[in-house]
Amino acid sequence: MQTERTPGRTALILSGGGARAAYQVGVLLAISRLLGRHAGNPFPILCGTSAGGINAAALAAGATDFGAAVRDLARAWLTLTPEQVYRATLPALFGRAAHWVASLLLGGLGRRNPRSFLDNRPLAGLLQRLIDFDGIARAIAAGELRALTITASGYSSGQSVSFFQGLPGLEGWQRVQRLGVRAEIRLPHLLASSAIPFVFPAARIHREYFGDGSVRQVAPISPAIHLGAERILVVGVAPQRQATPVREKVQDYPPLAQVAGHLLDSIFIDGLEADLERVTRINRTLGYLPQAERERLGLRPVAVLAITPSRPLERLVMPHRSTFPPGLRFLLGGLGAFRPQGSMLASYVLFHYQYARELIRLGYRDAMARRQDLLAFLSAS
């Protein structure tokens, strides 16, 4: 494959987070405005996981016109409804709930055990309309894209697999329970990477079923580094936590929604925060070593900038509880998802344009508040 020019080494990492990934679109809109309407693709290396993987794939497919790709992605989020992501009719929801109850009562004696709480077949149609998968190869050929990675978790192997499509010279990698595999990114990779455990069904890729890529992803920044990134922008979906959080005295037992939200936070957020801390520590250590010693060890510093929400995203979900489909609203209410402690769960599954609009606005404001940092980062690319 011949390229018109050699793409750079700046990477964008978009983490998972279900409906919270709309926040990333606000950050991207701010970057597009800062760069100007006709700027080229500022992120030749795109790495995404779960819903962040969908955003990354849309950017990669339109990398030859970054501004237009961002606007198209924003338009998709701003017209999104739950029915475009999962079957939300009352018969569909209560039918699946009945399947779960029957399977539990019969001890799994039915012909087929439940696969997920929600049926995400509408999402497949949405992604086919939203993403021109052939555009990824065109962007690579045009020199606008070095690589795209989509990470998923293998349910049989237990491995975190980063599927990547990129320049011919790029090689895969293998570490403990995580590896990079060259592939032509298609719809199954996105469905697998965004298959939140228990919520959406796993997707089969070749011989194995894969689920949400945030599961067991202990080093989310690693794929970008393996693909040669020298500068990395990370867009998260949760505020940076204090080193010593305040512990409040509570009386009531946590509702199931709070427990589920805590579990989702550990899947989507903890790995990224730990990896950011790890990269910062390595960079600091390398600063004390002479260049010759760095080369002997095979280590190099990597500039990292992180943009995260200035406020918890679950606090924005409560005014939009009525936008949930009636059946799902009933089920979530039974789990306590509309109490202040349980709203975290609701924030991951509210795929509605009203909630997305608020997240996009917040992402845009947060990015513009870091305007000088972003301009310095992008100008050095």
From TrEMBL:
It comes from Chitiniphilus purpureus. Pfam families: Patatin (PF01734). A motif (GXSXG) lies at residues 48-52. Signal peptide: none annotated. Keywords: Hydrolase, Lipid degradation, Lipid metabolism. The keyword Nucleotidyltransferase does not apply. The keyword Nucleus does not apply. Residues 12-225 form the PNPLA domain. This is Patatin-like phospholipase family protein. The active site is at S50 (nucleophile), D212 (proton acceptor).
